[in-house]
């Protein structure tokens, strides 16, 4: 006996109608999100002042996104969509610009900026991290993007973050760490954010040492990420040290001393979330 054809198989027209319905629901939900943001703006005017950035909340949102995601839609696409949604609605609450240091390559930095902040937020290019820090310092709520690694000829731009009134490192991009990320350039985000909005899993410290050497660099490498530039003032180096969650700056400085370096000064210049790693 032959099996009669199933009458439950949807037609192409049926499936396309389902897609159209979902698209309409997504659009309506985004508009509903906009309505809530409009109400949020009204509440903030009477109950809160300061930056609209909430690094801790953003990190939590991105982690939950990755944890629940499944199916054929690439994670790259979902991450980018959510980053643009978050950045755009933040911009609607309190307009800001993104200042970016292009010294590590124009294309790579622009890819990172557009992937994480979209095209609605104004993009302002700079040549040098110091220029980015200066622009953010003079703004009311702009963001700065600087490479999270040393570039030849670049000074210790992070020393400008040591003052209490200065902006700080508030995030490290990309939030989601995985192979073949479309915006993989490691970038620090600099801005002013409310103290209760910061995520403090990874502390970022400005440290000045004399006696910096290959041995000292090798000694601290297992304990923290270190960006080092020559510091003639102390005949040594200016370090930007990212101390991972559970680590202590005291342990880092003790290790430096044991390796022959002399620690001249330390200052906390920001913090950010631990990168969320996704296995291939």
Structure description:
The chain contains 7 helices and 11 strands. The longest helix is centred in the N-terminal third of the chain and has 36 residues, at 12-47. The protein folds into 2 domains: 21-199, no CATH class; 203-272, Alpha-Beta Plaits. The mean pLDDT is 90. α6 (214-220) packs antiparallel against α7. The protein is elongated. It is of the alpha/beta class. The chain has a 5-stranded mixed sheet, sandwiched between helices. The protein has helices at residues 12-47, 55-68, 75-93, 106-117, 129-138, 214-220, 249-258; strands at residues 98-101, 123-126, 143-147, 168-173, 176-177, 187-191, 202-210, 225-231, 236-243, 262-272, 276-277.
Quick structural summary:
By secondary structure, the protein is an alpha/beta fold.
């Amino acid at each position: 006996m032959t099996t009669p054809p199933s009458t439950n198989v949807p037609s192409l027209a049926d499936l396309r109608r389902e897609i159209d319905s979902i698209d309409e629901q997504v659009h309506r939900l985004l508009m509903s999100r906009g309505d809530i943001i409009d109400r949020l703006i009204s509440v903030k005017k009477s109950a809160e002042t300061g930056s609209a950035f909430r690094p801790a909340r953003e990190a939590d949102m991105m982690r939950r996104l990755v944890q629940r995601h499944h199916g054929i839609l690439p994670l790259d696409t979902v991450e980018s969509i959510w980053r643009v949604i978050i950045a755009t609605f933040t911009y609607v609450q309190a307009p800001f610009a993104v200042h970016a240091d292009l010294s590590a390559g124009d294309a790579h930095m622009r890819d990172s900026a557009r992937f994480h902040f979209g095209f609605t937020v104004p993009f302002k290019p700079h040549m040098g991290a110091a220029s980015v820090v200066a622009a953010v310092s003079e703004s009311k709520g702009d963001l700065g993007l600087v490479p999270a690694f040393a570039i030849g000829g670049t000074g210790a731009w992070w020393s400008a973050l040591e003052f209490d009134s200065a902006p700080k490192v508030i995030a490290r991009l990309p939030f989601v760490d995985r192979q073949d990320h479309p915006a993989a350039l490691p970038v620090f985000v600099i801005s002013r954010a409310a103290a209760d909005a910061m995520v403090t899993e990874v502390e970022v410290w400005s440290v000045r040492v004399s006696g910096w050497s290959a041995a000292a660099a090798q000694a601290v490498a297992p304990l923290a990420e270190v960006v080092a530039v020559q510091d003639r003032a102390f005949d040594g180096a200016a370090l930007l040290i990212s101390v991972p969650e559970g680590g202590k700056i005291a342990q880092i400085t003790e290790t430096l001393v044991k390796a022959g370096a002399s620690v001249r000064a330390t200052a906390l210049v920001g913090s950010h979330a631990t990168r969320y790693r996704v296995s291939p």
